[in-house]
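Table 4 source record.
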Amino acid sequence: MPLDTLPVELRLHVYEYLPELRINRHESVAPHTPLTPGICRASTWLRRETLPIYARNAHFGIQADNNAYPKGNRVQIWLSTLNDSIKHVQSFQLSRHWVTNGPPTRGQGHVGFYIFFECRSEDRWKVSGGTYPLIHDGRAGRGETLLRLLRVLKQTVLIRGVELRGEKPQLRREDVEGIAAAMDLVARRPFPADPLADQSEEGREARRKALEDLESALYALWPEWSGLRAS
């Protein structure tokens, strides 16, 4: 029996058995790799029915550096590919390289951080983050700036944003764009005096001021929540 002759309810049940649409499948948004499985590109009606399933079940890993994709910003390409199905996404991770110290030398490897968002249970989004290749990278204030970023994202994107939209919080394109913009700001912002090397009173005060300025700049990305910084 041809697939398009089955009732849509039965087709949706069949799709769940396809390996490329299975739950918790890890999808890396990488160069020269199709951003959607073949069934989502087979026809217009198959794309309409399967793209939301793909978006809901997959865990997406995206490199958020602006120059990481040879044909444009990788985050924007991912958002454009999913289009309206972004509202079905329940798990994704954005990674970003620190750029304040220049590009890595040959053999050094990339040094960066990531932000992980997930909404798998209790219909609530959770956010976490970390650094790489060191798990807790305290050099150049990286760990401290990451904690500030996570705090701002919880207050803006999650608590004041996604979770206020209803009982089943859905992601929007502007949420992901805001997260990527915040990560870019953190990655490019210089940090005065490495806290592991400079323990003077002047050094601590400079770092405290830098963190406050960073937090203010992050909140400024969401003007509608400008009053959060004072609270």
